[in-house]
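Provenance

Sequences were taken from public entries as deposited. Structures were produced by running a predictor on each sequence independently, with no templates supplied. The record for sterol 22-desaturase from Carpinus fangiana is shown for reference.
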Amino acid sequence: MYIWRKGTIVGPTFKMPFIGPFLDSMDPKFEEYNAKWKSGPLSCVSVFHKFVVIASTRDMARKVLNAPAFVKPCVVDVAEKLLRPTNWVFLDGKAHVDYRKGLNGLFTRQALETYLPRQEEVYNAYFEKFLHISQTQEGGRPAPFMPHFRELMCAVSCRTFVGYYMPDEAMKKIADDYYLITAALELVNFPIILPYTKTWYGKKAADMVLDEFAKCAAKSKVRMATGAEAICILDCWVKSMLESERYRQRIAKGEQVSAEEKPTMLIREFTDFEISQTLLTFLFASQDATSSASTWLFQLMADRPEVLDKVREENLAARNGDKNVALSMSLLEGMKYTRAVVKETLRYRPPVLMVPYLVKKAFPISDSYTVPKGAMVVPTTYPALHDPDVYPNPEYFDPERWITGDAEMHPKNWLVFGTGPHYCIGQTYAQLNLMAMIGKASMMLDWKHEVTPLSEEIKVFATIFPKDDCRLVFSQRP
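Predicted structure for sterol 22-desaturase:
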């Protein structure tokens, strides 16, 4: 069966019965992924019962991402068990489009402005924590900060998503346990949830997160029904539900309602658990990716002090020299260089390397090869983002390519947030969030990086991190 499915594309000549290269896949190495991508536009591997086709080039990746008639997102086998099979991310076709439309209002410019105060509060608190770790706990010695960046980004996400409906202790529990969900959702795992395995611990952690988000949903519905101001994504969504329901009730009573009074998007009321599932997907989409990006940002800035100096100068200038000026959308949108630094970080070290899709029906991906129904097809992002024809000297970190260069002229290669019907709904939020983080850090903190032989080596754990976990020392700026 494997030989027949493989056809003419690159891949192992034979497959080990049942498990295939399972043991190798349990400890994924970036170098092996990169070699696979370079082996050809299409290659394959088979693990357990799953035949996997890897689409390595930009055009092959885009073809998969823009083929909803043939493929649908599948993440990994256990994803439906953790995120729940009724989750909106597993919807297909019109059902997915309609659900997504109801979420678009949560990421408008006006909505993003609403979330900034909560994000800034989290950054202020965690930057103080970073100082305490470096100066008090570690006595000024370098320490691995990747775990702390993961906690920071989880806290930012939770405050953005559910505001203060979630107590600090629950937020800390999610930050600590989300690692278990990440481990359970690695590309290759044992396909059955057995007690005390990674997938089992991941399922328990996911159940806990769903329960906490459902509690937040119930609290938001009570508060927003009083006409309170929306301060987080959850509030904005509940407010939209309430406005839609009031509009429908007026229409049912036969009232004449002007077009101006009709909500921009009419949505139904969602249960607490439906809301919880959606918020978990937001966390799933953001937590590992932003943790990766923030880790690389801090390391890259420390290793390139001239870049950090420019970011600091731009952020202070945007605030007329007062580092205490609050974040705003207009402030962030005016920071051209900081934006370029974030975009170059996402290109240079893209957090998401691959996005698995399930083939719904035989998919003629090229003139010479058809991916069989039931297979997994995995478009990759790294080769497109390191294409020397589009990004000259791609292994060199160069924010200027987004300002004086022509990097912006190649949107087809910018696959950081995907493309097609399942592109990342929060891509603007994610980039502004990273800009806000590194901009504030540049004004409040100094930091030094202890470079080790593993600093530029890439560790794959759902996303990518430095193998030495980014060893830093933070100190207070005057």
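The CA atoms of residues 225 and 242 lie 7 Å apart.
The longest strand covers residues 42-47.
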